[in-house]
Amino acid sequence: MKIVVLQDYSSLSKHAAALVSEFIQRRPAAVLGLATGSTPLGLYRELAGMVRRGRVDFGRVTTFNLDEYYPISRTNPQSYYCYMRRHFWGPLGIAPGRAHIPDGNPADAAAACRDYELKIRRAGGMDLQVLGIGINGHIGFNEPGPRLTAETHLASLSPETISANSRHFEKAADVPRSAITMGLGTIMRAREVLLLASGKSKARAIGETIRGGLTTAVPASLLQAHPRVTVMLDREAALCLRRG
Ligand code: GLP
To answer: Tens of pLDDT along 147-168?
Structure first.
């Protein structure tokens, strides 16, 4: 794992944007895996600015999102679908046919998960996967537990995740209890991974991800087994990495 510690969130976002834009300049038709949540917002804003200034072109890029709440409709402003339209697909000019996210309201969830996995494989898998991390070490919505699932699946959210994500909803009762998420195998097959974390609340999870053993109790720790991972942190998220 390559660990990069930046002064603050703004610098983290700029460094992450430089890495992603250089990646796209090298591979203009790349397949990107994308995360939602607060952490990548600065990265997406920086990239949108670069696109506006004509510094990078995402016109040939294909994107797959990690996850979507279940059940949720695409018109719900809290859906990851709306988030992506507003913060990424729209500002970066990703054509609808190239922008993929699990359907949060499928008639048959198991079939929808199989289809999503198949679409990713048909696109050749992710060239670069952007990840955030939950305070309990989850990635996508792969929550800690006795076992993890390899492929895209319907997952139950842990009480910590429901409580952390309730800040985006009017009340905790509105937070969906389930989500459709890429599995650990889907994520680990990405050729390159960029994991971002900002703030004290992520410090423990980051310490366990990088310094602990590989364990299903911290799903992100499995990334230690991936050959090309960059972890970009601000100083607060890196607090548990200090030696001594
Ligand atoms: C959610 C998402 C994750 C994200 C995590 C952290 O649970 N499913 O993909 O990484 O929250 O979010 P935030 O960046 O808002 O802390």
So the answer is: 999 999 999 999 999 999 999 9
What are 43-82's pLDDT values in tens digits? 999 999 999 999 999 999 999 999 999 999 999 999 999 9
Q: Is 130's pLDDT higher than 70?
A: yes
Which atom of ligand 1 lies at the shortest distance from residue 132's CA? 10
CATH at residue 73: 3.40.50.1360
- Please count the other Cβ atoms lying within 10 Å of the Cβ belonging to residue 174: 11
Give the DSSP H or E segment for 64. Answer: strand 62-65
Domain count, the chain: 1
pLDDT tens by residue, 79-113: 999 999 999 999 999 999 999 999 999 999 999 99
Residue 120: closest CA among 191, 174, 213: 191
How far away, in angstroms, is 134 Cα from ligand 1 center?
5
Q: Report whether residue 134 contacts ligand 1, using a CB cutoff of 6 Å.
A: yes
Residue 25 CA to ligand 1 centre (angstroms): 27
Cα of 148 vs centre of ligand 1, distance in Å, is 18
Q: Report angle CA 126, 120, 1 to the nearest 5 degrees.
A: 25
